[in-house]
Amino acid sequence: MIQIGTYIELLESSSFSRLLNYINQQEQNKYSIDTQERCSSRHESFSETINEEEQLLMSENLEIKQQGSVKWFVYIEYLRAGIGLILGLIVLILLFGIREAIFVFSNWWLAEWSEDESYRYNQFRNCTEIRNKKMNIIRSMNDIEWTYYENRRFYIYCGITLVLLILTLFRSITMKLICLNASRVLHNKMFIRLIHCPISFFDFNPIGRILNRFTKDISIVDEELSHTLYDFLRCFFQVLGVIVLVSWLNPWSFIPATIATIGMLYIRHRFARCSRDLKRLEGITRSPFYSYLTSTIHGLKVIRSYHAERICLLEFFSHLDDNTRTNYLFLTTNRWAAIRFDWITLFFVGIVTLLAIIVRVIGRQFSAADIALTLAYSLNLMGLLQWTIRKSVETETKMTSVERILEYCSLDQESSVERLSKYRPPINWPSQGRIIFDNVSMSHSKELHSPLALHHISLIIESGEKIGIVGRTGAGKSSFIQTLFRMGTLVDGHIIIDNIDIGTIGLDDVRRRISIIPQDPILFTGTMRSNLDPFGLYSDVEIWNALEQVQLKKLVTDMMFNGLHSLVSESGSNLSVGQKQLVCLARAILKKSKILVIDEATANVDNVTDELIQRAIRDKFKECTVLTVAHRLRTVIDSDRIMVLSNGRLVEFDSPQVLLSNDYSHFSLLVEQTGIGEAEYLRTLANSSESYTRRKQDIYNLDDEPALETTEMDPLVPSLKSL
């Protein structure tokens, strides 16, 4: 032995300090190497030596990316969510079609008015022959007739403009309402489907992937898709209007227009496929970014305690770089397509200008107004067509968000959500709390060959029994509780509570009638009253009584100034873990259920709170069936019977005294592994519990005998109150 002393005294020693520095340096090097390997492995291909089980697990955990163009089903469902399919098509075609027809007519009316003005005041000497009857009529009008004619043109044009303004405003408002309603309906549908998903869905899908759908994808549908879709429809109907007008005035303009359209459609084909897939990749690479950020916030204390900030930053930047790369490529492809669209537009403008000059100088078959209107619309056609094609690609790209939302709108649902219950149980069910497991096998997945979490469990739990459930990690304790709440897939067997098979009644009826105190207490943002009584079924007197029974009344009255209406922060962050467990216990006391499940509720609390919870359970749930899952054997050693699980199988189920009488039983091995002193103490508790049970049974037997006529009390017979 070189040195001995306290930690502070040893820090002053050079040898001990060098040893700590060496250990710290070795750990940092190890963490750096592991982080670099993890970051580099994310950009490398997987090894060919991965076995089939690992590949299956990875395939189930990976996010699905759709292939090819966005299906018509996505557009149909989006329109159906907004206003309905048939009504939506009629409204959109009428609004955009009529508005564009009036706009083209207003421009034609203005061109005719301008031509009439030229007929009235201009002198035609060299350009055209005066053979136009309309020109002769206009030139023959006197001033009064011409003034009346001008005013009529003006008033009609003002009326057309007013109607155009009203239709444009009505079209914008209608389109916005349709898109917002579609977003609201899809969001609510996705949320409802999500909260009724099987628990296995949340095991394979990280929280960031779910948040991605409800944040970025919903934001795109709310804010961006409505503008993009509106611009696309507006430009599309403008292109149709220009094509109709130009084909009526000067069909020769369609020769270069056809060539330019073919070129633009070819570029769109190349551009849309890449842009669409990049947008899907951008959505997929965003999910790990959200997941890692959420996990980092939840584990911030652990990260700081291990000085792992740099490691987490490297991993975070790795996810961020993946998302930034796809965004950069997405913007680059947009610029690539825009440049090529501009080249085609320049070619078209040059050809149309040349044709207009030839028609005017050589043909002499159109008026100046017709040529100007044709040239203006022809030049505008390519700009509109280019913008329409770009908006069509952008619309398809943003529709990938609707595609991802619709994936969650078709999630698998729990069985009772998909079908009606055969019948509802009585109002007072369960009235006794007798539970029967008849050859029950359970799996966490609906797949055909998925592994079983519970294997052929058969047992009977009598009403009022206190059952302790023990076993090693992964033995199936939580799976047993989940089966009782129908959270897993029941492969075989039946679960009967008070002569009713829980598989034949509604899921809400099963979960509402059984109380649970979970290992991680769940509190919601709101008031203390809403957390204790979320459905408003109990009075304030009953709630205060429940708080007093778990010794929380003083906390609510003294520390929380608004009493039952005091605010509870997100996840109950303004309360300690023990206080949150007591709130859950008060919630169970309010429900007054005949069956109480305690899923390792005291695993994260101190011994004082543990004793308080156990005492409250003994006092308030005397006549209830209590199932307690615990790692601390002290918690369940005084139970009526102990259930020992191993690898999803029921290996032992008897009273703790009987199990401890066999030195080779699984429960005896678990007790011995706690240490010599703790094992001896547990055996003492088990024996005292057996003695207490026998004494209480003797008293019950005496109560059943006929009462003696004498009023004297035998001092050797203990009273029930003394127990």
Task: Give the % helix.
Answer: 55-70%
Q: Average pLDDT value?
A: 78
What number of structural domains do the residues give?
Answer: 4
3D shape: elongated
Q: Structural class per helix/strand content?
A: alpha/beta
Distance between the termini: 55 Å
- Let me know the number of strands: 12
Residue ranges: pLDDT <50 for 5 or more in a row? 37-60, 125-131, 695-723
Number of alpha- plus pi-helical segments: 25
In order across it, which strands form the biggest sheet?
Answer: 6-9-10-3-11-12
The CATH superfamily of the largest domain turns out to be ABC transporter type 1, transmembrane domain
The top-level CATH class of the largest domain is Mainly Alpha
InterPro entries: AAA+_ATPase, ABC1_TM_dom, ABC1_TM_sf, ABC_transporter-like_ATP-bd, ABC_transporter-like_CS, ABC_transporter_C-like, P-loop_NTPase
GO molecular function: ABC-type transporter activity; ATP binding; ATP hydrolysis activity
Subcellular location: Membrane
Family: Belongs to the ABC transporter superfamily. ABCC family. Conjugate transporter (TC 3.A.1.208) subfamily.
Provide structural commentary.
- α10 runs antiparallel to α12 (309-363).
- The two termini are 55 Å apart.
- This protein folds into four domains: 1-34; 72-409, ABC transporter type 1, transmembrane domain (ABC transporter transmembrane region fold, Up-down Bundle); 435-675, P-loop containing nucleotide triphosphate hydrolases (Rossmann fold), CATH 3.40.50; 676-706 and 714-723, no CATH class.
- The chain is built from 25 helices and twelve strands.
- It has 723 residues and is an alpha/beta fold.
- It has a six-stranded mixed sheet with strand order 6-9-10-3-11-12.
- It is 64% helix and 9% strand.
- Residues 90-397 form the ABC transmembrane type-1 domain.
- Its main location: membrane.
